[in-house]
Write a structure and sequence with these properties.
Elements: H1 18-22, H2 29-40, E1 46-53, E2 57-58, H3 62-72, E3 80-83, E4 89-90, E5 95-102, H4 110-134, E6 138-141, H5 152-162, E7 166-167, H6 186-191, H7 196-206, E8 213-216, H8 223-234, E9 238-243, H9 268-280, E10 287-291, H10 296-304, E11 311-314, E12 327-334, E13 337-338, E14 353-355
Parallel strand pairs: 6-7, 6-11, 8-9, 9-10, 10-11
Antiparallel strand pairs: 1-5, 1-12, 2-4, 3-5, 3-14, 12-13
């Protein structure tokens, strides 16, 4: 019995601007000119294009790359695609996709599918690293404000592939069928005159019970006092508090304990202070979400020290780009004969699956 084929996302989900893509408006100009010259010359070599990354990672963006080939190539029926799946781990230089067909039919798409794979693999891999550091605790994807709004759906999907359990916006959750997860923001507190308890009570009054109510408690730089006040006001309606103290501030509860650690921002001592205060007051069920400058390394330190965080909200570090996950595409066969540039060779990969 053959194994069940893994499902890929429907190409239509990506809402690609097909007319502009086919016209080459998103492509490096030299690819468009290559296509045009080949056609003008009546030269249609059949090539094998091989795609890889120099670093190991968690693959993501493959379903969109396939969608580009499905919907924006000039002759989809004449192109054979083999590929790994979103979520697959891959090794350095491992072939993750091959495209075989008349080169002029898909030459204009290389810029796009490489860019899709680079960005989404980066987000998925960085999220995976943070999730592994936090296990079994949740990692929430809060990166919407750190990049252009148009990338939210793709980035949220990549974070989901990497293991994030929640996202800040509905669009970040759109491709995987979720909805946005949100806390009571500083702006709402300011709108109620800086009264966190009042703002929290209004949220509890007007939002459905199904919404997990999480309150930011650093507005007055008194996370312990504000957490207790909110917990007393909301009781069981309070799902959690979110610590988000600026890296340039020292929370009021930490000041008497200064001297043996960096007291700024959301530090381990602050989390302990809030947890102890909540527990002593009978609010053991209230969860603590920590955010503000977290990445996998910082989460690993917190977990190694047993800091009582229940979930981590992470933003900019999950979309940071240092070029580590850039992908490369090479023509390695032309009309069945080796044609790769020096240093590149055909690297067959039995893990690739034919795309129908």
């Amino acid at each position: 019995m053959s194994p069940k084929r893994r499902q890929r996302l429907d190409p239509e989900l990506f809402e690609l601007p097909l007319e502009a893509i086919r016209a080459g408006r998103y492509s490096d100009k030299y690819f468009v000119r290559t296509r045009d010259v080949l056609r003008a010359d009546g030269h249609r070599p059949r090539v094998l294009m091989q795609v890889f990354c120099k670093h190991a990672g968690v693959l993501c963006g493959m379903d969109e790359a396939i969608a580009l080939l499905e919907l924006a190539s000039e002759d989809r029926s004449g192109i054979a695609v083999r590929a790994l799946h979103d979520g697959d781990a891959f090794e350095p230089f491992e072939t993750v996709m091959t495209i075989e067909g008349a080169y002029d039919a898909f030459a204009h798409l290389e810029t796009l599918y490489l860019g899709v794979l680079a960005r989404q693999t980066r987000v998925a891999t960085l999220t995976r690293d943070a999730v592994q550091a936090a296990q079994p605790k949740d990692v929430l994807f809060f990166a919407g404000r750190h990049d252009h709004w148009s990338v939210q759906a793709r980035d949220g999907y990549a974070a989901h592939i990497g293991g994030a359990t929640g996202a800040a916006t509905d669009m970040q959750a759109a491709l995987w069928g979720g909805t946005g997860f949100g806390t009571l923001p500083h702006a709402a507190i300011a709108a109620y005159g800086g009264d966190t308890v009042l703002a929290a009570c209004k949220f509890a009054e007007h939002l459905p019970e199904s919404v997990d109510l999480v309150v930011l408690v650093d507005f007055e730089n008194d996370s312990v006092g504000t957490s207790l006040a909110v917990a007393r006001a909301l009781g069981d309606r309070l799902y959690g508090v979110r610590l988000d103290t600026s890296g340039t501030l020292v929370d009021r509860s930490v000041v008497p304990q200064m001297g043996q650690f960096d007291p700024r921002g959301v530090n381990a001592q602050l989390v302990h202070n809030v947890r102890n205060a909540l527990d002593d007051a009978g609010f053991e069920r209230v969860r603590i979400i920590a955010s503000g400058g977290f990445d996998a390394a910082r989460i690993r330190r917190f977990e190694g020290e047993g800091v009582p965080v229940d979930a981590y909200g992470i933003g900019s570090s999950l979309v940071a780009n240092d070029g580590s996950f850039d992908f490369t595409a090479d023509v390695v066969l032309t009309d069945g004969r080796p044609s790769a540039k020096v240093g590149r060779v055909l690297r067959l990969n039995p893990r690739l699956e034919a795309v129908t």
